[in-house]
Write a structure and sequence with these properties.
The chain contains three helices and four strands. With 155 residues, it is of the alpha+beta class. The protein has a domain of 98 residues: Alpha-Beta Plaits. Strands 2-3-1-4 form a four-stranded antiparallel beta sheet, with helices on one face. Helix 1 packs antiparallel against helix 2. It is elongated and about 70 Å long. 13% of the residues are buried.
Length: 155
């Protein structure tokens, strides 16, 4: 389509009245940081050092977008409930992230590209769970300490 010089320019959509205003509070430096828990499962045939290098790479991505990795936990090689891409086990890594939404979007985009990552999930949380350490995750009863037992008396 050729535009004739005397013809007026076409209007762009949406019209200016419906466009969101340019707001200075939404600038990159003023973006609101949110808390996220991010869990990823890497392939079983890569080493723990390669998984650590992957987590370090993810840390540089988040920090490049203005965020921060608060905590990084390597849970080890664990069995999967079902096979994922012909893998029965996977390396689990938990990241507690304090970052803007654009950092998480970029992080997930990079994980989609990476062939070593089987699955990932990112959940927005109000605060980080203090009981997410490996000792608390194992199958221990919640209400009682380890060494304590209860005895019932029969009347």
């Amino acid at each position: 389509m050729v535009r004739v010089p005397d013809e007026p320019k076409r209007k762009r959509f949406p019209p200016p009245s419906l466009r969101p205003p340019n707001r200075p509070d939404r600038a990159k430096k003023g973006t609101k940081m949110a808390l996220y828990e991010h869990l990823l499962i890497a392939r079983q045939d890569i080493s723990a050092q390669q998984v650590d290098a992957l987590a370090t790479h993810l840390k540089t991505i988040v920090e490049g977008e203005g965020g921060k990795i608060e905590k990084q936990e390597y849970w080890g090689l664990r069995g999967l409930a079902y096979r994922i891409k012909k893998n029965r086990k996977g390396h689990y890594v938990l990241l507690n992230i304090n970052a803007p939404a654009v950092a998480v979007i970029e992080l997930e985009r990079q994980l989609k590209i990476n062939e070593d990552v089987l699955r990932y999930i990112t959940v927005k949380v109000d605060q980080f769970d203090v009981s997410s350490s490996k000792a608390r995750r194992d199958d221990k009863p919640e209400g009682k300490p380890e060494g304590e037992t209860t005895e019932e008396t029969v009347q």
